[in-house]
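User: My collaborator and I are trying to settle a disagreement about how two of our proteins should look. Neither of us wants to argue from intuition anymore, so we agreed to look at predicted structures for both before our next call. Could you fold the first one, then the second, and keep them clearly separated?

Assistant: That sounds like a sensible way to settle it. I'll keep them separate. The first protein:
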Amino acid sequence: MNERTIRVLEYEKIKNKLKKQATSQLGKELIEKLEPINDFNEVQQRLMETSEAVSLVIQKGNIPIGPIYDLKRYLKIAEIGSYLYPKQLLEVGDTLRTARVLKNFIKSEDSDKFSPLQSLISNISTYKNIESRIEEAIIGEDEISDNASPTLRNIRRQIENKNTAIRNKLNSIINSSRTQKFLQDAIITIRQDRFVVPVKAENKKDVPGLVHDQSASGATLFIEPMAIVEMNNELKELKLKEKAEIERILREISGQIGEVTGNIKINQEILANIDFIFAKAKLSLSMKGIEPKLNNRGYIRIKKGRHPLIDPNEVVPTDLWIGDKFDTLLITGPNTGGKTVTLKTVGLMVLMTQSGLHVPADYGTEISIFNQVYADIGDEQSIEQSLSTFSSHMTNIVEILKNVTNSDLVILDELGSGTDPTEGAALAMSILTHLYNKGVKTIATTHYSELKQFALSNEGIENACVEFDVETLSPTYRLLIGIPGKSNALEISRRLGLSEDIINKSKEFITNEDIEFEKIISTIESNRKTAEQERDEAIRLRLEVQRLKENYEKKYEKLQQQKDREIRKAKEEARKILKEAKREADEIVKELRNISKDVGKERNKRIEELRKKMKSNMEDLHEPVFFDEDMSFSEPPKNLNIGDSVKVLNLNQEGTVLTKPNQNGDLNVQVGIMKINVNISNLRLINEGKESSKKTNIGSIMKTKTQNIKKEIDLRGQTLEEASINLDKYLDDAYLAKLESVTIIHGKGTGALRKGIKDFLRRHAHVKAFREGIYGEGGSGVTIVELK
């Protein structure tokens, strides 16, 4: 890809954002090498892997990418038969673990599913045995575990015993009244890996032994008493054995790694790729990117595209298309209106797509694969810079025109600027005509009004402008394709306070053709705004109609489902009734056959009994549900309060409201000694007289409960059944008294009562939450309950 294009479109900044999403140095190295490619199939493959990674992150959450180290040097050491140090082995183990965890994370349950990531992880080799061996043997960067081998454990136990024996011996020496007077301090220290004691220099001969060191002043000698020389020698031998065993263990583990270095190298490449792919996914999610549709015919359609390097809360989305009905797009408008940002947005999205990255736009965006992208974009220019600027731009444009083909995209900012306006406009028209005739897709910006007319009069070249709000004297940054930019100089000057005389005088210097052209543009602009308003209103109405239609369809579907349920329920009830009736009839027939042998009054008596039984059964089958007819046709109560007296229609019983209805209309009602859960539609308020009477009684009960209820209940010494009954009544009273929390004292004991009470609380209607008591509240011997 063209180096200047990469630089002016700030592609490196996108790579830097991508690097921040990678977790390993290997992944960042791949990102550093990333550049746009023009192979259609390869680009499609890269986009697919990014999309798959995005989907995995959305479905499964954070990616378990652990440490991924560069193991190339370590693997070479293992291959030649040498051994790795503990820190190096830990890095190998961590990398192997990361490979295994990622493979399990990405693995699909659908084994036939083919995708880029599935293809990658299928080549990962896992070595749980090596992981476990490293984890078992090494506990730090410089520390080997005692469990690394039985031999090492035994040697270290001997070392510990020998250390203890030496210290005991030295303690007996330094604590001896005969020796203490010869010592500088009654302490044990170590010099050159040997245990020694600090002896006064003048008493050297009084403590026989080997001198290993002396103090800086020379007043103290560090002597190894002869009594422990042999023991120190034995300790030295044990430490040499320990070192040899550690080296053997490291060689053993390194040898296991050396046998599979080829597969671990493949793992390294795959892990770097996976880190790179998930970095692309995280970048996509951070900028709300989408996978663009690809084509290779030079067609670009960007829907609500946002420049990826501008704050998403500030950037204004851009709609742009080219390559279908026109190959050249000419954008006009004032400075700081967003023309250059639009060019960079298009160019950067093409480069990102050809790099396998998602683009910050809406679904429906389509990007073509180009062989090359050429861009000539500079900062806003001034008259003083005109000569050098013009020369610089023309040098770049000459190079572009030499190499460009019909498979390329050309982006030109302020074409023809920096020189005489007439010559600059003529040159710009000539360059655009040349590019158009070669079939090159071109997007250019300009200030020249001549180019607006040029675009209008030439097929295949389309005008566009960045919208400017004259009322606020500021750009809206919206791109309008099909409309040339209108010069707002006179209108802006008028609003800024320039006198009408000067403005009118200026119009005399403008040709009639220019004035007429500006009027046409104004008319087009006015018609466009009207059309957009009407379109927005039409869309709003269509969405409203669609919403109403969806609501209607949902309600209709719900009614149909309810109807089907009721029909099925009725059929099931009818089937049960018929089955029961048949059974009863069969029994009666059987009875009649049995009594046919009887005679006289006895037979008549039995027949009469059976007739009454059949009549009773028939009455049971057709037994109506009795309820208060006036109440059944009245409306369900709208505002129920705790303590209200109600009638439960399906039971034909009176009750008292215990809880307020929830969002589904369900509540608890006390009917006699029972508490039942009913829906508000099945309740009716009892008449005012009874209601007021009931309310008075309930009010007095609640007042009594509030005054007498305690904030704790002691259930110690009770069986679980007794405790459950007493606790249920207490919670009802506490709820009516509107206590927010209560304490249940159950003691510690065997824990059976405490467990049973907690099971009971989980099912209780009045309990919002509960916890075990803390220090100062009674600890595990009490449970604190929060009531609804």
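The second protein, kept apart from the first:
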Amino acid sequence: MIKKLSYFLIALLFLSFKQDEKAITLTHLRCEFLVNPVGIDVLNPRLSWEIKANFRSVEQTAYQILVASSSEKLARNEGDLWDSGKVISDETINNRYAGKALKSRQACFWKVKIWTNKGESQWSENASFSIGLRNYVDWKGRWIGLDRSFAWDDESQFAKLSARYFRKEFVVNKEIKRATANIIGLGLYELYFNGQKVGNQVLAPVPTDYNKGVKYNSFDVTTLLKSGNNAIGTILGNGRFYAMRQDYKPYKIKTFGYPKMLFNLDIEYADGSKSTIVSDDSWKVTADGAIRTNNEYDGEDYDATKELKGWNNVGYDDKSWLKAQLVQEAGGSYEAQMTENMKVMETIKPISIKKIKENTYILDMGQNMAGWLRMRVHGKRGDKVKLRFGESLQANGELYVRNLRDAKSEDNYILSGEGTETWEPTFVYHGFRYVEISGFPSEPTVDDFDGRVVYDEMETVGSFSTSNKTINQVFKNAYWGIRSNYKGMPVDCPQRNERQPWLGDRTTGAYGESFIFDNHTLYAKWLDDIEQSQKADGSIPDVAPAFWRYYGDNVTWASTYITIAEMLYSQFGDKEVIKKHYPSMKKWMDYMAEKYTENGIVTKDKYGDWCVPPESKELIHAKDTNRITDGKLIAAATYIKMLGTMQKFAQLLTKHEDKSSFENLSRTMQKAFNQQFLKDDKTKYSNGTVTANLLPIVYDIVPKENKKAVLNALLDKILVENNGHISTGVIGTQWLMRGLTQNGRADIAYQLATNTDYPSWGYMAENGATTIWELWNGNTANPEMNSANHVMLLGDLIVWYYENLAGIKSESNAFKTIIMKPEIIEKLNGVKANYHSIRGEVSSEWKKQAGQFTWKITIPPNTKAHVYLPTNSVKNIKESNQKVSQNKSIKFLKIEDNKAVLEVESGQFEFVVN
């Protein structure tokens, strides 16, 4: 059976209200997750919408949803599938479809209107969704492919397998009402109708463990078909299906076979009849096309002299092509892809090109990025241009590639000789800033090249800047690093022979990323990957999908399964992911406790506090035991933290026995933890590293009477022993900035955030980094492990930027109630941040000057905020030149820690504190 995913579908709304006879637009066109999705496998989707108002104190009181079987019926306000009626509710997200039973291939059209305390809206614009092929038997036809290589292919360690081209012609002799193409193209596909590419996606579909689940994409192709003869064309690339390397560590790296596809074209005619064009052995196929090789690690070779002109159009002579083979189906269940594909999201221009030797040039993009190069070239037939990619240069100006390990990372293009040729690869991507160009038939210029930035199609929802240039540059570096590593799953790096979805890299990182990118569906999909990779006994791997067979059973990496679910609930209100994955999460918790409990605590660890700053800049990992945190402490503390999170999940799902069990086990383990790791003088844990003391503090394990002493030991370690610098690795950095701030030392967090000498984020930026390094000493460490484009060392820095510096944080129900509480730090003069939450725009812009604090904020309609202002008297506050007591949208609550706390309704406000 197909898994029934349930993600958000968002209305596309233009709601108009009338107030005092004046029309006011309250919403804008926006789709939070899926834009008019085609081919979902959810029969009762959750419908959501966003309200946007230019006046204050808007509260939704009711809504009505109509869902119809045709756009014509919806236009007549006929909800023949579902008319919710007027529902008294203030909820704008997760409103579940509750109409007639929906079926595979069914098209649905919907709209919504709402009532508020300010009046009734008009109907929104029409939105739509359609149901995909939900059941295995809904798919017709057979899997096709070519289960062999050819003379020009190479199946050694450095696999070189050419792309496979498929085509079929068919006839349409009736008027078409609707046509939907459904394709499972593995590893990667391009789809064409009558010579025109379908969609703007690249590197589709998203990667999965193909033995567990394979994703299909659906497209409305009605406008691409014509009366009479039509042609379908597909190209299959290797992707991760025909694994990135063959005959290379088979004990470690999974392979799945040769590329293959399953295809259905469903046509509904105006007269009510239907037909389906399927993949079968009537299709023709060749591997003797222009894409000679494609390998994610090594690059793509393209021979333009081998182009098959018109191959995907009607009338092409394919007599020399082979008959498609009927092949074994992929092992995984068929699943609708409920997340967006990758896309060319931006095109950037190089900043320079420099000749380094005869016919060899270095192109500088000015920015480390992930994607590829688009090239324009004019030359003779058979000329060959080689493009080699790297993140940095050697001292002599040549390309530096040692940190790529054995990834060749090069593209080769053979010219056809037909005028100016424009080319970019199809089935690979590179992580790079610099490109070595050789064989170019003329003197190249920057105008001959474009950088194509590729990542999952998702909205940028956050912006952030401050009065400090180091913080601003680090934020920019984080932005580029995060999007470089969204590749249908969150990968660790985009450049070397790895590119794996390591769980530990995103434990907290995903949370920070959600303030910059709308990453909801990406991480919901990743939870499915993790669940599918779980063994029957409960074990979860370090990498999921488990393309590498790494089942280390360390607590910290696998616990990401739980923390991501928590993030999706707190940031996006997605309770369904918790409900869906709770059994698997509980299975892992039970497995770890049963197998690895020693002396009352779970102690299994593999990586420790990965990548702490080493004592020597040439080292990858520290060898000084005073810098290394006991892995058993890290494992035990993290497991206790997960017990707390599972208590919350059990409470949310009304699993009261589970909640009680988690609570009791947590108390027992906390006691055992303190007995084992809290030193006799009660001032520190284990050997007293920052991470060793930080985790018990932020996880609330430290006995209350000892907390101050342990905190002082932590602060002394940072300020004295480490001279005000960071000393944590992947685990400690996940809590460092918030831990310091929550315990009254935001000033130290700020110092760590703005340092520019080693080790620090600012050190990376100061030394030319335009993304985030894998190592604090990434410019000097052994090249075996010094990726210049990782995000794991960001820890909770981005969360701290938004929640603590800007002061934007969800208090309850995915920003239904918001905490606006910025840390006013002496050396920081201002912050400006915007975050488009699931409920609308939240903004914070504060500055201080001449003894005055000014703060502009935006609170979305249908929400409220608790606003903290730096004064111990409400009399010192004015809003829009009015006293707070005179403002009906503001209520004074209390004075807390020398801050005035106000309850603020929705709208835009400008506070001044003297």
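Some points you might bring to the call about the second protein. The first helix runs from residue 71 to 75. The mean pLDDT is 94.
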